[in-house]
Amino acid sequence: MPATRTAPYRRRALAAVAALPLLAVALGACGYGSENDKDEKVAPAAEGEKVGGLGEVKIGYFANITHATALVGLQEGLIQKELGGTKIKPQVFNAGPSEIEALNAGAIDIGWIGPSPSINGFTKSKGQNLRIISGSASGGVSLVVNPKKIKSLDDLKGKRIATPQLGNTQDVALLNYLSEKGLKVDTNTGKGDVTVIRQDNKQIPASFESGSLDGAWVPEPTASKLVAGGGSVLLDEKKLWKDGKFVITNVIVSQKFLKEHPDVVEAVLRGSVKTNAWINSNPDEAKAAANAKLKADSGAALPPEVLDPAWKNVDITDDPLASTLGVSSEHAVKAGLLEDPLLDGIYDLSLLNKVLKADGRPAIDDAGLGVK
């Protein structure tokens, strides 16, 4: 496990991350993400008593299949049902760093997000800004390439490979993998033996089709979009992890919001747990619900040749797979984004375990990284 002392980012990496634009999906005018007007038309209305008297809770997520819990829970009203009259205010993001900025600014209260931005945000704030309160998904990430240009993992040198954003979970994974292959890349510029291009998920398929990219290390459904467009999966990231399991999506909350509104956080977690159970018991209906939410958020549903393989590649779970977070932090160190990540206290699974206990299910372990 990596050291858990607080330490700053490398100066140049910190400067680069601090200067990152907020690459939120451009569905509206909100600076930190996008509220979709269509959500107001299709999402179940907030009805009944407000939890703790709170009028709204601001929830962030990505328009990715790896965020199926949020997609399905919002589309089917399973989360809203637990909140009663407390209205959900949703915002959609492209990648984790911009969502962390939104959390820090108070633009969202709770969010579905990957492990690397969670670690980065927690470390940068010296453990003061967020807690991981649940898991959501494992897997669902692949390196997809142009098979005419790259035929094996030994052909990566000199190629142009995309990730969604500097410092996001896929970016860290790619940089770490290239380092292990002995290929050098400057973390900030992306230049080196392999050129790493940081580009919005929704733009990557067009760039790939035009030939300006040779491949991309991306989550679902972007990976399956590339395959449908002629790409080939060169590496499923599951193959790099023990038992094929690694956290790809967590649920995080602002520490301030958790302290002030634990009852609201608990309600969201009840909705998350119920959504995950419904997804795993009704995979076909859940897949359709996720696609309906993607259509509402982006204006277009995924075709079967993209949706079906993407859905199969993601495992939905309440378990944050805490032991794999430590490995992710080691990857961030190797990538040059962190010197000494802070992990102690990053988890608070008390409300999740309360919800699970009420459902007759065993508690989930935080690998010793929980609030003491």
How would you describe this structure to a colleague?
There is one protein chain. By secondary structure, the chain is of the alpha/beta class. It is built from 15 helices and eleven strands. Strands 2-1-3-10-4-11 form a six-stranded mixed sheet, with helices on both faces.
Query: Which band does the percent of strand residues land in?
Result: 15-25%
Low-confidence stretches: 1-41
User: What level of helicity do the residues show?
Assistant: 25-40%
Main pleated sheet: 6 strands, mixed
Largest beta sheet: strand ordering: 2-1-3-10-4-11
Please give the alpha-carbon distance between the first and last residues.
Answer: 18 Å
Q: What count of helical segments does DSSP give?
A: 15
Q: Secondary structure elements and their pairing?
A:
Layout: H1 11-18, H2 37-42, E1 56-62, H3 68-75, H4 78-83, E2 87-93, H5 96-105, E3 110-113, H6 115-124, E4 130-139, E5 141-145, E6 160-163, H7 169-180, E7 195-198, H8 204-210, E8 215-219, H9 222-228, E9 232-236, E10 247-254, H10 255-260, H11 262-281, H12 283-298, H13 304-312, E11 314-316, H14 322-334, H15 350-358
